């Protein structure tokens, strides 16, 4: 399984935006369709909310790829 480390620059990123930012979805519409089709898991559980908030420490899995969301140490505090 491939693993992508994603540095989060704010408090959270929406699930559809994360899929697009990591290149797992070619567009926002494709990302929303992936979530709606039940192909995305967050922390090991199926996630059907397209705009759920993903925070540092969470893991998103899509078709053989895991995305580890990590806090950006250079980002200003919230």
Short description:
The protein is α+β, with helices and mostly antiparallel strands and 78 residues long.
Structure description:
There is one protein chain. This protein has 78 residues and is of the alpha+beta class. The chain has a single domain (2-71), classed as RNA-binding S4 domain (Structural Genomics Hypothetical 15.5 Kd Protein In mrcA-pckA Intergenic Region, Chain A, Roll), CATH 3.10.290. The protein is built from 2 helices and 7 strands, in the order E-E-H-H-E-E-E-E-E. The strands form 2 sheets. A 5-stranded mixed β-sheet has the order 1-7-6-3-4, with no helix packed on it. Helix 1 crosses helix 2. The protein is globular. It starts with a strand and ends in a 7-residue tail after the last strand.
Key features?
78 residues; alpha+beta; Structural Genomics Hypothetical 15.5 Kd Protein In mrcA-pckA Intergenic Region, Chain A; 2 helices; 21% helix; globular
Write the SSE topology.
Elements: E1 2-8, E2 13-14, H1 15-21, H2 28-36, E3 40-42, E4 45-46, E5 53-54, E6 59-62, E7 65-71
Parallel strand pairs: 1-7
Antiparallel strand pairs: 2-5, 3-4, 3-6, 6-7
Helix pairs in contact: 1-2
The CATH topology annotation reads as Structural Genomics Hypothetical 15.5 Kd Protein In mrcA-pckA Intergenic Region, Chain A
Distance between the termini: 33 Å
Portion in helices: 10-25%
CATH architecture assignment name: Roll
Based on CA atoms alone, the radius of gyration comes out at 12 Å
Mean pLDDT: 94
User: How many beta-strand segments?
Assistant: 7
Name the shape in a single word.
globular
**Which sequence of strands runs across the widest sheet?**
1-7-6-3-4
Continuous helix count: 2
Main sheet properties: 5 strands, mixed
Strand content: 25-35%
Total domain units: 1
Order of secondary-structure elements: EEHHEEEEE
Highest-level CATH class: Alpha Beta
């Amino acid at each position: 399984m491939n693993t992508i480390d994603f540095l989060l620059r704010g408090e959270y990123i929406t699930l559809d935006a994360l899929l697009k930012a990591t290149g797992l979805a070619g567009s926002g519409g494709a990302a929303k369709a992936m979530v709606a089709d039940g192909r995305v898991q967050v922390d090991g559980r199926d996630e059907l909310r397209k705009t759920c908030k993903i925070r540092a420490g969470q893991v998103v899995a899509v078709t053989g790829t895991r995305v580890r969301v990590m806090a950006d140490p250079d980002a200003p505090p919230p």
